[in-house]
């Protein structure tokens, strides 16, 4: 006898809770909705969830759902299972080759959009979420996204095409293959220190690309490269804006000041944690 969606979802919730998954109830329902959508070949709206939970579930949906719950039980992130993550104003494709776009990174986008810019460089672009969100708001701007991972660049290109944004994506070790000057440089680089890696949630530590998480050192190597190279690639009065870990504000601010940037500021996220450091290239003094 077929089980109802509610029965399947309740059993899945219990499995996820036993596996230590935070938000097991929400995840079980999100994945049930995704299983329905996959089986039906079209998105099932969230407002229809209650109706489907009350119905008997087809063997096809039950099989798809079981596979998804097993993956989540193994602590694979929901976004990787569904292949999508909402960020800023769009849904982005995500894979195991990319860092999962996080809500706190939206502060970087918000602050970047507080001033006009005609060109933007995103270093370590990953899914392209930051760059694409910025260009969608400033369609006349020129945008370049850089990453070391060819697989991540493929994801970023597909996201740009899906959202309808024109951007250039290239493989580069930070600034190594970058030409030209930009009014805005942004980055959410790997900032987790090697010693902090064991304490990360399994969803992050075991499933997201290590290259995007840590520099295998003190967590500041990327900022040394970014701050050291930014002045040569910024127009006068151009801005460098980076996301940081909550304890890195003072260190990254010093790196920017040592690189000759001015108006260096640290901004906090909604939880009151240091999240974004920004600096500006000064206008050359006339002689």
Automatic annotation (TrEMBL):
The record's section on Pfam families has:
MTS, PrmC_N
* InterPro entries on file: DNA_methylase_N6_adenine_CS, HemK-like, N5-glutamine_MTase, PrmC_N, RF_methyltr_PrmC, SAM-dependent_MTases_sf, Small_mtfrase_dom
Keyword S-adenosyl-L-methionine assigned? yes
Q: Which UniProt keywords apply?
A: Methyltransferase, S-adenosyl-L-methionine, Transferase
UniProt binding sites for substrate:
188-191
Q: Which domain of life is it from?
A: Bacteria
Q: What class of enzyme is it?
A: transferase
EC number(s) recorded for this UniProt protein? 2.1.1.297
Coiled-coil regions in this chain?
none
Methyltransferase small domain mapped to chain residues: 105-193
CDD domains in the record: AdoMet_MTases
SUPFAM superfamilies, alphabetically? S-adenosyl-L-methionine-dependent methyltransferases
Q: Summarize where S-adenosyl-L-methionine binds, as residue positions.
A: 124-128, 147, 174, 188
Recorded GO MF terms: nucleic acid binding; peptide chain release factor N(5)-glutamine methyltransferase activity
Q: Using the record's annotation, list all stretches that form the Release factor glutamine methyltransferase N-terminal domain.
A: 8-83
Reactions catalysed:
L-glutaminyl-[peptide chain release factor] + S-adenosyl-L-methionine = N(5)-methyl-L-glutaminyl-[peptide chain release factor] + S-adenosyl-L-homocysteine + H(+)
Q: What Gene3D superfamilies does the record tag this protein with?
A: DNA helicase RuvA subunit, C-terminal domain, Vaccinia Virus protein VP39
Q: Which GO terms describe its biological process?
A: methylation
Role according to the record: Methylates the class 1 translation termination release factors RF1/PrfA and RF2/PrfB on the glutamine residue of the universally conserved GGQ motif.
Q: Which family does it belong to?
A: Belongs to the protein N5-glutamine methyltransferase family. PrmC subfamily.
Which protein are we looking at? Release factor glutamine methyltransferase
């Amino acid at each position: 006898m077929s089980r109802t969606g509610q029965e399947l979802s309740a059993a899945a919730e219990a499995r996820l809770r036993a596996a230590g998954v935070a938000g097991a109830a929400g995840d079980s329902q999100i994945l049930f909705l995704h299983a329905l959508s996959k089986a039906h070949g079209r998105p099932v709206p969230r407002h229809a969830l209650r109706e489907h939970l009350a119905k008997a579930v087809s063997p096809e949906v039950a099989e798809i759902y079981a596979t998804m719950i097993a993956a989540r039980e193994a602590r694979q992130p929901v976004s990787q299972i569904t292949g999508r993550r909402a960020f800023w104003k769009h849904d982005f494709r995500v894979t195991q080759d990319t860092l999962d776009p996080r809500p706190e990174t939206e502060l970087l986008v918000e602050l970047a959009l507080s001033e006009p810019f005609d060109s933007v460089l995103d270093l370590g672009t990953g899914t392209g979420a930051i760059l694409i969100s910025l260009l969608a708001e400033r369609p006349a701007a020129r945008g370049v996204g850089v990453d070391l991972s060819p697989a991540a660049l493929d994801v970023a290109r597909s996201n740009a095409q899906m959202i309808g944004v024109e951007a250039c994506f290239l493989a580069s070790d930070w600034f190594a293959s970058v030409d030209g000057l930009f009014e805005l440089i942004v980055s959410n680089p790997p900032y987790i220190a090697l010693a902090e890696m064991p304490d990360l949630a399994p969803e992050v530590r075991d499933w997201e690309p290590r290259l995007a998480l840590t520099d295998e050192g003190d967590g500041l190597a990327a900022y040394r490269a970014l701050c050291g190279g930014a002045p040569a690639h910024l127009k006068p009065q151009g801005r460098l804006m980076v996301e940081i870990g909550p304890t890195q504000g003072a260190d990254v601010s010093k790196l920017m000041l040592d690189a000759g940037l001015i108006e260096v500021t640290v901004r906090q996220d909604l939880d009151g944690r240091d999240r974004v450091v920004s600096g500006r290239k000064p206008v050359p003094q006339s002689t």
